[in-house]
Amino acid sequence: MKNSLELTAFLKSLTSNQKEDFTKAFIKSSGTKTSGKFEVKNPEKPATVGMINKLAMTFVDHVGNNKKPLPKGIAYGTIRGHFLNRLNNDKETLTQGKIVKIMAMKSLPSSDIKAMQTYKKLVAKG
Question: In the chain, count of helices (H) and strands (E)?
């Protein structure tokens, strides 16, 4: 959790040129493509952690990916944790098909945003 907060603070402190350079360096070192689509052969299979990471990064970097901004307080770690929790849900697991549908949206579903905000309020009450 601490690492995701540090990463979020670091990313916020960068200028747009620095963000672009950092993103290019990250993509080059990790071998991931931010502009590529997922190749989903079976949409009913459970999502992968890599898909969840890409989903979170897509909505955090909303300007570069033409998405709507997130509400204040919702960062990469919050999104990633929320969707990992949905992936590990025994009753209704997060599938690759659902990830692709969310990635195609302009913003995260309101039910997910409300769930993240509620969770953050519970944690704050501690």
Answer: 6, 0
How far is residue 47's CA from residue 56's CA, in Å, rounded to a whole number?
13
Residue in this structure with the two tokens 């509400």, named with its chain if needed: 71
| Segments making up each domain of the chain, as ranges | 2-125
Torsions phi, psi for 72 (to 5 deg): -60, 135
How far is residue 103's CA from residue 58's CA, in Å, rounded to a whole number?
Answer: 8
Flag whether pLDDT at 32 surpasses 50.
no
Question: Residue 31 has what DSSP assignment?
Answer: T
Any bridge partners for residue 94, and if so which?
none
For 125, phi then psi, to 5°, come to: -70, -30
Long-range contacts of residues 101-105, Cβ cutoff 8 Å, at least 24 apart: 102/55, 103/38, 103/54, 103/55, 103/58
Task: Tell whether the model's pLDDT for residue 34 goes beyond 50.
Answer: no
